[in-house]
Every structure is written in C-alpha cells, then in structure tokens.
C-alpha cells in the first residue's frame, strides 16, 4: 500500500534558477572593458548561468555599440552561431589597452594625499595605480608594496611622519601604514577638540585667584647665588591708579606681601587683558632665573596627549583665574617688584 501511495504521489517540483536581472550595457567612457567583462562574469556566476546559456546573455547585455563591434569582427559569420568564448576573446583583443608604463609610473609617484582624504584612502589610491605600473622583477614577483612604501615616504606632507619612516631600516608597507594610522587617530582627536560642541553649561565662578592644594612650588637657588636689584621704572600716569588698585587686590588676597627692603628687585611688566583689565607680571629673566637650579622635565608631546585622550567622548576646559598666582612657595625669596 505504501509503495502504491508513493507511486501515485505527484513528483516534487524541481528547483528553479533565479531569473537574472538585466546587466548594465558596456560604456567605454565610464569603465574599461576588463572591468565590465569581469563584473559580467560575476553576474553570470551569481545566477548560475553556465555553458551555452551565457552567449545570449552576453549579446543582450553588451549594448548597441559593442554589438556592432561584434558584427564587424565576424563579417562572414552569423552572430547567433558564435560561442561565448569566441565573442569574449575577440572583444578582449579589440579593447585591449596599450598602457604607457612610464606615464602611469609618473602619475603614481606624483600622487599626493589630497585635502579631506585619510591616509588609508591615499594608500588605497596608490595601490590601485600600481596595477598599470608593471612593478615586477625579472623573476615575475611583484614589488608594488615596496614602491607604495617609497611613494608614501616621498610624498607624505607631515615631516614628522617622514622622519619616523626614515628611521626604520627597510620597513614593510604594513609598518608604514601603522605610522599613518596613528597620525589619522591624532588628526581625528584634534578635529574632535576643535569641532565638538559644548556638552555642559559653563559655571562662572568668582574671578579671583584661588590656591592650589596639596602642592607647593619650590625654588632652589644655586650655591653662591648673587642677588640682583633693578630700580623701578616709571609707570605711566594713566595707569598708576589701576596698577595701585591691582597690587592692593593681590596683597589683600594673600598673593603678594609688602616688604620694606630687599636685596632682589625685578622690573614690573604691565599688560592689558582683552577685558580691559591689567595683568601685572614680573620680568625675572635678568634677576632670579639665572640664579636658580634648573628643574629639567620632558614635556609631553601633543601626539602623546591626543593618543591618551582619543577614546574619550566628553571633554572639559577649565579656565583658572590668574593660575600662575595660585601656587604657594615652599621657600620664600624676599623680592621687590619694581615698576
């Protein structure tokens, strides 16, 4: 009974191939024949079009202009009798490009990174240009990666990147690209700092100098240090009242203190802030600074700082009022500020 039922059952439907959509016609002004034919081959493979079925698809897809070329290439044969391989081989020979290797290499070595282009995009452009540069040795092995590496070192606009590349002994293209990637990261961080909108409301505190906590500045005089005393310069009459008021404010805040006599005296430098108020500075260049033991400390480079803060999303900016006056000294050097 089971065998009879199986025999009576209708046959299962056979799987149907997907209907291939039309492929774009070949346009010599938009693409090369090699590019079009390779993509057309992928199109056929994607829809499982094989064997003799490929010929009508090719004739239907090439377009009117290319179809006329096929007719001219086979003047004594009917196009319908041609095989897919015959048509493709004839068109490959017809559209074969004569490449000027010297001109292509000239373009390759002159290609620099353009504005708005990332380093990765620039490298991809260089790698694409090597296709027609015939960078192959007599053994048949390509050396295009080496030429891309050399072109980067020659044309990179950032001198610091070039210096890093030239310090390496015969670096690989990947090593050079790692250097470029780090620079792209720094560029992104700098752009984020410059263009990021404010993410919080600014609270304006009292415009008065504070006091740094848990830190005291320490100045160490050299052995046999010689004190320097410079007479006060004349303060312009128009600024005398404002200078006196500023000095009084600093004294009342405990930033400076009045002394009756001192072996040290430096010139006062009067600057005007954008707000119109005065900023009083002291020129220690010829007095205290030469008598101090220099504290050498390597300042971090901007690249290292941006690399550390790059993963961050939100950034704050602190503007301290008279920040240089907020450090308290661990050792007092009596001084008189001359005008």
Give your account of this protein's structure:
There is one protein chain. With 339 residues, the protein is mostly helical. It contains twelve helices and five strands. The chain has three domains: 33-94, no CATH class; 101-195; 216-338, Roll (HIV Type 1 Reverse Transcriptase, Chain A, domain 1), CATH 3.10.10.10. The relative contact order is 0.08. Mean pLDDT is 79; it is low at 198-203.
Q: Helical proportion?
A: 40-55%
The number of E-state strands comes to: 5
The termini sit apart by 121 Å
Query: What integer value in Å does the Rg equal?
Result: 39 Å
> Structural class of the helix and strand makeup?
mainly alpha
* CATH fold-level label of the largest domain: HIV Type 1 Reverse Transcriptase, Chain A, domain 1
What is the CATH H-level superfamily of the largest domain?
Answer: HIV Type 1 Reverse Transcriptase, subunit A, domain 1
What count of helical segments does DSSP give? 12
Relevant terms:
two-stranded parallel ribbon; mainly alpha; single chain; 3 domains; three-stranded mixed sheet; HIV Type 1 Reverse Transcriptase, Chain A, domain 1; 339 residues; elongated; 12 helices
Give a quick summary of the entry:
This protein is mainly alpha-helical. The protein has 12 helices and 5 strands.
């Amino acid at each position: 009974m089971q065998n009879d039922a199986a025999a009576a059952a209708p046959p299962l439907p056979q799987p149907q191939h997907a209907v291939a959509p039309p492929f774009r016609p070949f346009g010599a002004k938009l693409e090369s024949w090699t590019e079009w034919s390779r993509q057309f081959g992928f199109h056929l493979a994607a829809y499982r079009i094989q064997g003799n079925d490929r010929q009508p698809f090719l004739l239907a897809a090439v377009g009117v202009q290319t179809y006329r070329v096929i007719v001219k290439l086979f003047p004594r044969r009917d196009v319908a009798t041609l095989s897919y391989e015959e048509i493709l081989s004839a068109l490959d020979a017809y559209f074969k490009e004569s490449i000027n290797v010297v001109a292509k290499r000239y373009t390759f070595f002159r290609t620099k990174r353009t504005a708005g282009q990332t380093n990765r995009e620039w490298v991809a452009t260089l790698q694409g240009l090597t296709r027609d540069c015939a960078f192959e040795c007599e053994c048949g092995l390509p050396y295009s990666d080496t030429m891309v590496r050399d072109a980067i070192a020659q044309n990179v606009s950032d001198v610091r990147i070039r210096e890093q590349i030239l310090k390496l002994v015969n670096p690989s293209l990947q090593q050079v690209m790692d250097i470029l990637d780090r620079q792209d990261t720094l560029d992104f961080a700098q752009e984020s700092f410059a263009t990021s909108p404010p993410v919080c409301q600014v609270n304006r505190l009292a415009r008065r100098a504070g006091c740094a906590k848990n830190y005291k500045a320490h100045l160490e005089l050299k052995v046999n240090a010689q004190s320097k005393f410079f007479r006060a310069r004349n303060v312009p009459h128009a600024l005398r009242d404002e200078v006196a008021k500023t000095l009084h404010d600093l004294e009342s805040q405990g930033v400076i203190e009045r002394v009756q006599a001192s072996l040290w005296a430096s010139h006062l430098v009067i600057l005007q802030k954008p707000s119109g108020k005065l900023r009083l500075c002291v020129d220690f260049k010829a007095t205290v600074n030469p008598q101090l033991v220099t504290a050498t400390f390597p300042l971090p480079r901007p690249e290292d700082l941006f690399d550390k803060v790059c993963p961050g999303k939100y950034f704050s900016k602190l503007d301290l009022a008279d920040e240089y006056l907020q450090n308290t000294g661990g050792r007092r050097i009596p001084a008189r500020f001359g005008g």
